Every structure is written in C-alpha cells, then in structure tokens.
C-alpha cells in the first residue's frame, strides 16, 4: 500500500476498523482507507475473514450519489484494507448538535438518505448502523444540502434474513441509541431495520434530542424494547403534524407497522413535500381528536413518564399515486382555518390500551381487509354446513386429491359457489414490473382438440394443449404440450383444498405430460429474455406455485435452459423434503439447497440469479406458513441466452427429468430482482392463496 497510498492521519476508529486519511499518488487525490483485518486475521482464511472480504467486495459494486464510493480493495504486510471516497463536510451529529434542522433541510436529509437505502436494499445490502455520525452533510454553493451515507462496514449481503452483525466475541455491533428492537433481540433483519434507525435519526434532527435515552445502556435497551418514547409532535410542536407522524411511522416497534420498504417511505415523503408540508412556514396543524380514558400521548413534562407507542396501528395504505395526489393533507392556507387532518395519509392517533384500533384497509402486500376477511369467514362457514348437509343427504363423499395432497378436494363445484369464495381481485401493483412470462391456471388456456378442429377454451376436466402467456411482453410466449400430442397434454382441474383460501385452478402433470415454450434466438424479443443483456441486473427471477407429486423419486419442477443446450437452471423436489436449485453452464455445476420444507404440499418457489454477481438464491414458502432460503455461488462462466421454459421433459428415457404434480401459477422476469422486491412478490402470492401465509421475512 505504501507504494501508492500515503497515510496522513487517523480519522477515527470503531468496531468495524480504523479509518485513515491518505493521499493516492497515482490518481492525485485524497482518499479514506479503512483497515478491516490485521495480517494475522487476513491470513487465517477462515469463514470470518472470508465473509468480511466478501462483504467489502459487494460494497464496491454499490454506486450511488448519496453513498460513499469504494475505489479499491487490497492487502499488504499489515492486513486487508478498503480504499474509499474521502467525503468533506460535517457529520449530521455536528449539525444537529448546534440546532434542530429546518423543514427544507430536513426534506433533503430524509430524501437523499432514503434514496441511498433504496439503492443499497435493491442490491440486498443492509447498513445496520445508521446514526448521525455515519451521515455526512455539507452545504452546496446553490444552498441545497448534499448528503452522503458513510460506513456500510457493518452491512452484509442479505439474500436471506440473518442474525444481526456481531463481533468475534458475540458482542452486538451498532449504536445503541438507534438500534431496532430486532437487533437487540438478535432476530432476523431486513430493510425495515434500517428504516427504524433512520426514524430515530430524523426524530433527533427535528427535535434536537434522541427518542430513546436513559442513564445506562440497559435503560436505553429497555426503552427500545418497550418503545417508551415521546411523540415528536410533543417534543417539537412547531413541526407539522403530518411530518411528525411520518417520522414516528418509520420506527414503530412492530416492523410490520413500519413502511414496507424504503421506496414506500420515500414515496410518502414526496407526497408530503408536494402538499407543501416540508417548506418554510408550514405551520403545525392543531387537530382535535377524541381523548381516550387514559391518554396515550403524554406531554413531556418533568416527572411524567413516557408511554409506549408500540401499538400504533398499521399505516392506512393505497397506491403510490393515491398517497401522493389524493391522501396527503394540503398545506394550511395562510390566514385561513386549518384544514381537518385527513384519515388516509399518515398513521392515526394511538388507541387507548385495550380499545380496538381504527379500521385498516387492504395493505400493499396483498393482505385482506376486515370486510374481505368476514366474507371469507362466512364462506368458510357455509362450506362446512354445505358439506355436512351433503353427506347427511346421502351424497357422494368428497373425492381425495392427488397423492401428496394437503387435504381433500371437492369435485363438481362451480367457481364462486357459496362453498368456494372467488379469488380476491388483485391490486394494480400485485405483479412486480417487468414480468416477461406469466401463466395462471384457468386463464387463456386452449383445450386439446383434433387437428383442424376449432380452438375452444379449456374447462375443468379438459386436457390443455396451449397455455398462453398473460403478460404479452415477448410476443407469443405460449407453453405448448410436447409435440402437440394428446398424451402429453396436462389435465386442467379446479379444486377446493384445505390449505388454500379459495377454489383454485391447476394443471396436473402426470409424468407423460409436459409443456415447453421456446423463443427463437432470431426473434428481436429474445434480447429481453434472461441474460439478454438489456437489463440493469441481467439474470432472471422466477415465482412458481407448485405441488409436486412425489413417491420414492425426486421430480424436476421447472427447467429454464438454452435451446441449444449450452446451459440450464432447474428446480428439483425430493422425497426427503429437500429442494435444490441447480445451474449448469459449460462444465460447471452449482447448487443451492433448502431442507425441511414439505415437498408434497403446495409450495411457492422463488428463484433469483444475478449474472453480474454470479449469485443465485432459492426460496421456498409452504402452505403451512413455513419458509426457507438458500444462497449459493452460480457458475461464473458467461451463459448464452436462456430462451426455453420447460415443465417436465419429452424424453421418457430420462425419468429423473419428468414432472408429476400440479402447477397453479408461474411468473418469470428477465432480470435479478432485488431482495425487497422479490420477497414482496413472493409474499403477495402466498397471501392470496395460502390460509397460513406465514410472515414476509
């Protein structure tokens, strides 16, 4: 290092390493150098040092105007180091130590920090240590603030939720005043953990004091875990109520009551800005609310204890456009009567303990509102009554479902009958943008017919010759039965199953049946296929709802391949409740494995492969609410376009590649979806279908 970088001074030191100011003699610039490992630690070659080097390399790919750039990685006689951009200016701690921020400056701070988190989370990187000392702020000549987020040194690539960062002795790393409850409890983390820390930082930026304080470390931890905090509107009454509530929303005790992700928080903040709440002179709105018997918000008077806000109800939701244009409160007119505080833009005041919270509408992850839940409950009750009446009247017993089924199916029912609720309508944002192939059983399917016969839509009990793509993004993306032969056509059925919410259409593959879609490489649309090269993160993402019919052998549920057999990616389910994602390019084969997920149930299978980072991920969500994830390295060789989708195989001489089971829905994106987006898409699907969808993370 001495040959290129000249160390000038130490800038600071912490749990993640010491930082020095240095001069780059080759590029004639000042840089910051962070020592991450000593020579002894670097030479160990153990998992700890390997993970740190891997994390540092991942940070080098994170490029954003509001994130400190990583220029170089290296090692010398003193150990492993990382060379970063040297950021001028003061830390946010210096700024807010002098005075609270104005609303326009606060808007810049919150917006730019959230944009940094959106970028990092999209690449599956969590910060894990957001605090005022890790945010640099400086005033530009134009008068605006420039924000840079420092020290992603505690971040890890987080394709699966992991325990929070600890040092080698098991001590928690992070700043106690800004740590989320799930960090203190050593529970899995996700992007909402960073939002909690940011909420604490923004609270301090507007009020000049931390939200959680005590005389001891234990006291601060208890304040977090019990969520003993004064509402920002009480500490800083000059701040508009919608802005105060937005900040409190970020660091709810319950992660499910925080914004879904950084993008949602950013969209809501922009809505407040459009409505004028973040400009100079935006006065606080005094709102008359019903006072509960025991006040939930107490004034921060001396001797009056803080109260927990851990039971804030979820924020009312809606589409992004609704939040920005329709539900954000207008700015108070000058000299006029303050407008009434609307009910749809910001979390409502806390209910009194023991009282029922306000009505919560359907959330953005596809959850049901109370009205829909009641409809489903009534439908479920009618199902039980109808079934009992049917048996007592001497009707046939319900027919058993396919082997490996999670429950009985009831044949002969029409969709939407009293015993089978209709599938709920899907929100506009149900499917992540950019989907290139989408198949859903019961929609746009052609029944098998003799040659030259007219095409008819498949109904329950028909063999399906063609399963049409619903997205229309790649021309004719239809799946067709092998050879267009009747014996290769899967069977379309509608079944009511105990593990699913409503009567569901499915295609049943029986070993001899299989379907294929091939996009001709000469087709201009082929460039949009996985590894077409036009995407920011080339690769693919797949979400598939499937129920394998496993006996004593494994089955291959899906195969995405190059039609010239230059590479493939496939998913297999095994009798021992094991799932494998395998990828082969040239001679190299890599696998990711999830164990302990019952393969004979309905499973939501998620796949992600990033060709840039050579990473792949397998996610399994089961109808019993369980889930598992596995990340692995993918082959590093360059792959040709994967232009063929296969369910089962036409070559019966290879029984290990045949598929037996049911497919409900299949979606394919031609890029590697970010962690938040992918997990959100998976959760929306299981919330729609499964009676026990489990948790998102």
TrEMBL record:
EC number(s) reported in the record: 2.7.11.1
Regions crossing the membrane: 373-393
Entry keyword set: ATP-binding, Kinase, Membrane, Nucleotide-binding, Serine/threonine-protein kinase, Transferase, Transmembrane, Transmembrane helix
Bias type Low complexity, positions: 325-344, 402-417
Region listing for Disordered, in residue ranges: 301-366, 398-428
MF terms in GO: ATP binding; protein serine/threonine kinase activity
Domain annotation Protein kinase: ranges: 5-278
UniProt entry tagged with the keyword Transmembrane: yes
Pfam families per record: Pkinase
SUPFAM superfamilies per the UniProt record, alphabetical: Protein kinase-like (PK-like)
Keyword Chaperone: no
Domain of life: Bacteria
Official protein name in the record: non-specific serine/threonine protein kinase
């Amino acid at each position: 290092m001495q040959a290129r970088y000249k160390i000038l001074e130490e800038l600071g030191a912490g749990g993640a390493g010491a930082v020095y100011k240095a001069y780059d003699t080759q590029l004639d610039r000042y840089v910051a150098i962070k020592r991450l490992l000593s020579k002894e630690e670097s030479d160990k070659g153990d998992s700890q040092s390997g993970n740190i080097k891997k994390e540092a390399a991942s940070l080098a790919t994170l490029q954003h105007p509001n994130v400190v750039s990583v220029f170089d990685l290296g090692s010398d006689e003193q150990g492993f180091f990382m060379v970063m951009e040297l950021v001028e200016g003061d830390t946010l701690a210096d700024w807010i130590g002098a005075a609270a921020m104005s609303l326009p400056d606060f808007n810049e701070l919150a917006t730019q920090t959230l944009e940094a988190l959106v970028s990092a989370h999209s690449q599956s990187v969590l910060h894990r240590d957001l605090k005022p000392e890790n945010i640099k702020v400086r005033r530009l000549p134009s008068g605006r603030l420039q924000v840079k987020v420092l020290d992603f040194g505690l971040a890890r690539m987080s394709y699966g939720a992991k325990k929070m960062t600890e040092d080698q002795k098991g001590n928690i790393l992070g700043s106690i005043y800004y740590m989320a409850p799930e960090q203190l409890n050593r529970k899995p983390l996700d992007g909402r953990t960073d939002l909690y820390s940011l909420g604490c930082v923004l609270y301090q930026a507007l009020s000049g004091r931390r939200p959680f304080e005590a005389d001891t470390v234990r006291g601060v931890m208890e304040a977090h875990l019990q969520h003993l905090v004064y509402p920002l509107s009480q500490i800083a009454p000059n701040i508009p109520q919608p802005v105060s509530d937005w900040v409190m929303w970020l660091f709810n005790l319950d992660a499910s009551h925080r914004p879904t992700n950084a993008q949602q928080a950013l969209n809501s903040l922009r809505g407040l800005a459009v409505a004028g709440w973040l400009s100079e002179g935006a006065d606080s709105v005094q709102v008359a609310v019903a006072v509960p018997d025991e006040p939930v918000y107490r004034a921060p008077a001396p001797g009056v204890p803080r109260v927990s806000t851990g039971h804030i109800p979820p924020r009312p939701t809606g589409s992004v456009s609704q939040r920005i244009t329709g539900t954000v409160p207008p700015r108070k007119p000058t000299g006029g009567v303050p407008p009434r505080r609307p009910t749809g833009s910001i979390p409502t005041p806390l209910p009194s303990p023991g009282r029922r919270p306000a009505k919560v509408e359907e959330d953005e992850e596809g959850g049901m509102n109370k009205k829909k839940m009641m409809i489903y409950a009534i439908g479920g009750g009618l199902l039980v009554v109808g079934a009992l009446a049917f048996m007592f009247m001497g009707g046939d017993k319900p027919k058993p479902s396919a082997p490996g089924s999670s429950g009985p199916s009831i044949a002969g029912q029409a969709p939407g009958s009293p015993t089978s609720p209709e599938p709920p309508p899907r929100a506009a944002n149900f499917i992540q943008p950019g989907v290139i192939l989408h198949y859903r059983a019961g929609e746009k399917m052609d029944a098998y017919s003799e040659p030259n016969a007219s095409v008819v839509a498949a109904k329950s009990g028909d063999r399906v010759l063609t399963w049409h793509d619903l997205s229309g993004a790649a021309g004719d993306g239809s799946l067709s039965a092998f050879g267009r032969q009747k014996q290769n056509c899967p069977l379309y059925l509608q079944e009511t199953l105990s593990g699913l919410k409503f009567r569901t259409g499915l295609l049943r593959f029986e070993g001899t049946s299989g379907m294929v879609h091939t996009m001709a490489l000469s087709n201009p649309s082929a460039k949009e296929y996985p590894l077409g090269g036009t995407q920011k993160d080339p690769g693919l993402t797949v979400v598939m709802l499937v129920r394998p019919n496993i006996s004593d052998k494994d089955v291959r549920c899906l195969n995405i391949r190059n039609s010239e057999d230059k590479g493939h990616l496939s998913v297999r389910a095994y009798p021992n409740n094991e799932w494998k994602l395998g990828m082969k390019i040239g001679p190299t084969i890599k696998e990711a494995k999830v164990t302990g997920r019952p393969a004979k149930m309905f499973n939501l299978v998620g796949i992600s492969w990033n060709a840039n980072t050579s990473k792949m991920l397998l996610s399994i969500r089961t109808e019993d609410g369980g889930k598992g994830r596995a990340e692995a390295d993918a082959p590093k060789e360059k792959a040709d376009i994967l232009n063929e989708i296969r369910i089962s195989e036409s070559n019966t001489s290879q029984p290990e590649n045949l598929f037996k089971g049911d497919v409900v829905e299949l979606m394919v994106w031609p890029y590697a979806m970010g962690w938040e987006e992918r997990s959100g898409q998976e959760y929306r699907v299981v919330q729609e279908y499964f009676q026990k969808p489990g948790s998102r993370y």
